[in-house]
Amino acid sequence: MSTDHQKYSTENQSTAIRAYAAQRGLTIVRTYADEGKSGLRIEGRDALRRLIDDVEGGSADFDVILVYDVSRWGRFQDADESAYYEYRCRRAGIEVEYCAEQFANDGSPTATIVKGVKRAMAGEYSRELSAKVFAGQGRLIEHGFRQGGAAGFGLRRMRVNQHGERQGILGIGEQKSLQTDRVVLVPGPPEEVETVRWMYRAFVQEGKPEREIAETLNGRGIMTDLGRPWTRGTVHQVLINPKYVGHNVWNRVSFKLKRKRVRNRPDMWIKAEGAFAGIVAGPLFEEAQRIIADRSRRLTDEEMLRGLRTLYEIHGRLSGLIIDEMEDLPSSSTYGHRFGGLLRAYRLVGYSPRRDYRYIDINRSLRRLHPEILAEIITGLKTSGAVVQRNEDTDLLTVNGEVSLAVVIARCKETPAGALRWMLRFDNGNDPDILVAIRMDARNERPIDYYLFPRIDQTAERIRLAEENGLSLDAYRVETLDLLYELAAPVRIRAVA
């Protein structure tokens, strides 16, 4: 369960499961419960992981697993993931029964169809809930309420009730206790407020850079809101944050449905100007932003890369924090905007970060592999006697002047559960008569099989392939392209007769 305020609380589930067991003469010997955990990902689901380990490790002292309903495996965005965990239990010889469902989990076609629908519905529920929560949070931002995050130096979080009456300052790590309460930002202690104003004046009016401001603050014994010494980066964050002029800004970064964290474009931000009392004058703040923007605009691409290359030689590595700490370089966000992402800027100066970016190399390798596979297919067609023409712009093949072929490579991806998946996009723009889809192995080094889709069945823009897909998809699967070559071989009319 993810919250206490729902029918899926572990207590309610336990009651229903015990009643189900009593009616059928089953004895419950062990309980696995993930309390207060999101079902969107397997990460954090320690009890579910322990269940799978016990089942597959042979230490299970039970014959049946009782689950409240299909959605309790998880509200995964990939419906096959919850099916995968059930499959692993059944493969180990442990039956799975659902206590609150209206069907028997007996492997019948009806049960299979219903479970598939319910798994998809569980994922859709999370998507709809995410959209509703996002809209609600956006409305609260527009009304001037804070949606998480530390207040920052010079500001404090104030708890207010539903009537807007102040209820007290929240300390670091404290949260409001009532759902109807809200949080707003208010000016902090006078000495902190004056320090923030001095930082802006020193930067705008006196021309002091961020590093010099940080050194001055540290020399005065002033610490950040987290009790740490000031750095060039922490001063920079104060100078660019619109909350100091009273603007409430949200959705600069998204992390929806526990997926990849993305930095949104400014036009996607939700902003309420003058939502609360600012501690810095608007013109002073705007002038600080202009200075920061002009500082990066003066540099050419080559000058920016030269500075980044020098920084790499000094530190032996690069990161956003290291870049932001350099006084004479633009910020890391400026590098990202100028060069289409920090990773590309790193590559231009010869730096490869330790983080796993193998998917980029895989995509690059597959792009190199595509012409080779295309040449092999052309050779195979010609060997069978077919006449093949290739469109140099689209790589579309025309066989015997009658049939067009498009060749696509499906990269293999591993889900968090360890299952393999392939995303296949139909090349509808070229409208081929036959789409030859090549499914790569787990290392994306060589083809493992092929799918031949005729135009009449290319109805969707994309499909997701699993290791086993059922007759509806695997009917198009072949181990080799020999069938394609045989079909392409020209046959004399006399021989047919």
From TrEMBL:
CDD domains: Ser_Recombinase
MF terms (GO), sorted A to Z: DNA binding; DNA strand exchange activity
SMART domains named among the record's database cross-references: Resolvase (SM00857)
Source organism superkingdom: Bacteria
Residues annotated as domain Resolvase/invertase-type recombinase catalytic: 1-144
Domain Recombinase: from-to ranges: 175-298
InterPro entries: DNA_bind_recomb_sf, DNA_bind_recombinase_dom, Resolv_N, Resolvase-like_N_sf, SSR_resolvase
Entries under Pfam families matching the protein: Recombinase (PF07508), Resolvase (PF00239)
PANTHER family (alphabetical): DNA RECOMBINASE-RELATED, DNA-INVERTASE FROM LAMBDOID PROPHAGE
Name of the protein: Recombinase family protein
Higher taxonomy: Bacteria, Pseudomonadati, Pseudomonadota, Alphaproteobacteria, Rhodospirillales
